[in-house]
Design brief:
113 residues; mainly beta; Protein Yojf, Chain: A; 3-stranded antiparallel β-sheet
């Protein structure tokens, strides 16, 4: 069984590297490019008044840019969240990590120059 700590270890292999995150959700595609400074995990305790904030998440920290159907700009708060609500899984090799959740598919890879 996969757990958040295993995912965090797999993502930390990209630390201090330029990475690209592709998110596919409901036919939409977003792209983030960032220098990964670190990976943090989050687990909420108790009730939430905000349905957007999930029970578990992985935060990728670092400076970067985000681009999607709405345009592009700086990465808000220098972090990118991957919510891990419901069923999720990941697979990783040396240069790519793919996270599949109930809502979206995230492909994280070292950026090729």
């Amino acid at each position: 069984m996969q757990n958040v700590e295993d995912l965090s270890r797999a993502l930390n292999r990209f630390r201090n590297e330029q990475i690209r995150i592709l998110k596919e959700e409901d036919g939409d595609r977003d792209r983030v490019e960032m220098t990964l400074a670190g990976v943090e995990t989050y687990r909420r305790g108790g009730e939430s008044f905000d349905d957007y904030i999930g029970d578990r998440a992985v935060f990728l920290r670092g400076e970067g840019t985000v681009a999607g159907g709405y345009g592009s700009g700086p990465l808000p708060q220098n972090q990118y969240e991957i919510p891990l609500d419901g069923a999720w899984s990941f697979c990783a090799d040396g240069r790519t990590c793919r996270v599949t959740t109930d809502r979206a598919v995230y492909t994280i890879a070292a950026r090729e120059e």
